[in-house]
Structure formats: structure tokens, C-alpha cells
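User: quick one, fold this
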Amino acid sequence: MDTKTLIEWSNRFHVPTYTRAPICLVRGEGVRVWDSDGREYLDFTGGIAVVALGHCHPRVTEAIREAAATLIHTSNLFYTAPQARLAKLLCEHSFGDRVFFCNSGAEANEAAIKLARKYAREHLASDRYEIIAARNSFHGRTLATLTATGQEKYQRGFEPLVPGFKHVPYNDLRAVELALDSRTAAVLVEPIQGEGGVIVPDDDYLPGLRKLCDEAGALLILDEIQTGMGRTGKLWAYQHSGVEPDVMTLAKALANGIPIGAMITRDPIGQALTPGSHASTFGGTPFVTAVGLAALETLLEEKLPERAARVGRHLTAGLQGLKARHPVIRDVRGKGLLLGVEMARPAAPVVTACREAGLLILTAGDTVLRLAPPLIVDEATCDRALAILGAALAAQAA
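Assistant:
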């Protein structure tokens, strides 16, 4: 099947919710992917920070084969070994005591919102249900998580939104303090805003939120869907701050591309979700949790968070070098291998130029380039990507 026909079929038969690049990817290995015309690309999108171990990692591929040949689905009416083992491993390597498995980041955030409301109602007050979230945030596409998302462009056309959410500026502790009141159940934020432009808060932001939530009796929920699983140079981004949340949500890299989400919390908070109060038919199947277990074990054994920190410093230094040579770059920011390059003009033409030269990168808003390569990337591959990006910037300037 030729690429032109595939694109025509996609444009004809899909609901038009995506603006796709005009290539059809057919194969991946490590940090590289190939399109249907046989062209090779360096993938610095990582499936939007999903394939932390790279494409078709041998251990993940073997886990998929074994799980598919053993037991794919049972429902959560029964115990399964992979689900129990993955829950145990997540709790052992985080602040948490309890895990709820689902299928996506949006579902994980939905579970966190429901947990916060139910816990507050049962332990604090019957009218304590509001969630404080940040402007410029991104938390998902369901109606509740869309409401939590602090960007009107994603909400437009879906009104009326779900009641019970307030939005305050990100990285502004005073704004949170003023928004907290007797109806606040939780504060929901990303440790680093990803979709909002790779915005890294001040060092005192998460500790300050922790203190405010403790004083108000509200839960602190951290959306680590993009920042978790070693992406920022530590296993979880909250570990940079020295404080722990009450609830954390995960998805993306948890099974290296197989759909899974998770909400992690501590006791006694997790006890608020009693039998029948929340569920997911496909959440935590033996198939997906077996793959998630292989992915997390590999991440830990190969010390990929530490690698992300080291290679991220190298990539950041290279981007700072480009900034010194190209005035169009206003800022370079991020942690580990979640990096943003803020431009003085729209970023999309640079993304296109890089793709045409064999490098896939992302945007984060209209003027920010986002780089989120697999955590297995090395310095030499980063240098190749930097050379392509530098050439693209030079061509745009010309």
C-alpha cells in the first residue's frame, strides 16, 4: 500500500481530530523509526514521552509475546500475578501504599479527582469538593480533566464544563493561598508543565504547595504522566523537590507504549475508594501489567533516570550553544530529557524542516520546541539531532 493512498484513507475515514505529519511510520528500533518509503528518522518525540526504553526494546517485546501467549484479560473480578507485582513495585519505589490501574493519563487523573472528592466528603466536610489547578496546564481530554486543564483552547466548544474547579497562575504560591478555602479538596499540578511549554517552577514551589495543602487539609495531587518514569533525571519528578504528594498519576511511559494508566496514593486516603466506587474493565489487565512490569524493572536495572540526567545535561548544553548562535531562541529549559526551546516566532516551520532532514521533534504551544527522546539515547545521537536542528534554524533565518 503506497503512502499517498494510506493518507487519503486516513483523511477520509478518521474523525479529523489530529493534524498529522505527511509520513506513515511503519517500523522502529531504539531511537530510530522508518516510514513507508524506507526513510529513517531520529525520534526525539518518544511517542510524546512514551517510549522511554526506545522502540521495540527486546525485553519489552519478549514480555509482550509471553503475556499474549499466557493470559490477556480476566476482568478485575479475579486476582492476577502481573497486576499485583507491578502494584508492589510501584509502591516500593515511590511514596505510595495503594495503586489503581486504568488505561490512560486522563483516566488516572479522573480517578485522582474522584478520590479527592470522596476522601474530602468522608473525612472533612460534605461540601468540600473543589480542585485548584494551574493555568496553562494539561490533564486530559475527558470532560472533568478537560475542565482541570487550564487552557481555554482545549475547552472551547465543550461548555458547560464540570463545576468545582478553580485555576490560578502556575508557580505562584500566593495565588494558591488565596484560592484555598473551606471547599478545597485538592490542589492538582504538574511538577513541570509539559504541554504548556515545558515550564519548570521555582525550587520552592512544590514544597510551598505541600505546606499550604497540609495547613488547609487539602490533598496534593501531582500529575506525573509526562514527567514520571525517569524522564526528568529522577524516577519521579517530585523527588527533585524533597517533598511527597498525597496522590500521583502516571501513564505514558509506564508500559513503553502499551496503554496503561495508574493512580498511586497513600493510606488511609486510598481506602476511600471502596468496592464498587470506582472501576475500569480494561484497567490493569494481566497483559498490560506484565509489560509494565518489564518496562519498570528494565528502567530501574539499567539506571535510566540517571542516564536521562547525564545525557540531558549534554543535550541542554548543546541547545544552549544553539541559543548563543541563533537569536531566534529565547530560552532553553527543562530537566533531564524533557526539554523546551522557546522561539521568538512560531515553532512549526522548524519542526517541519527537522522532519524533512530526518529528525522528529514536538511542539509545546505555538512557539516552543519540545524534545523528549527515549531515555536510552546517547550523547552522539544527541549531537546528530543538534546538528539537524541547527541547520534548520539557520535555514529559517536565511
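User: anything notable?
Assistant: The mean pLDDT is 97.
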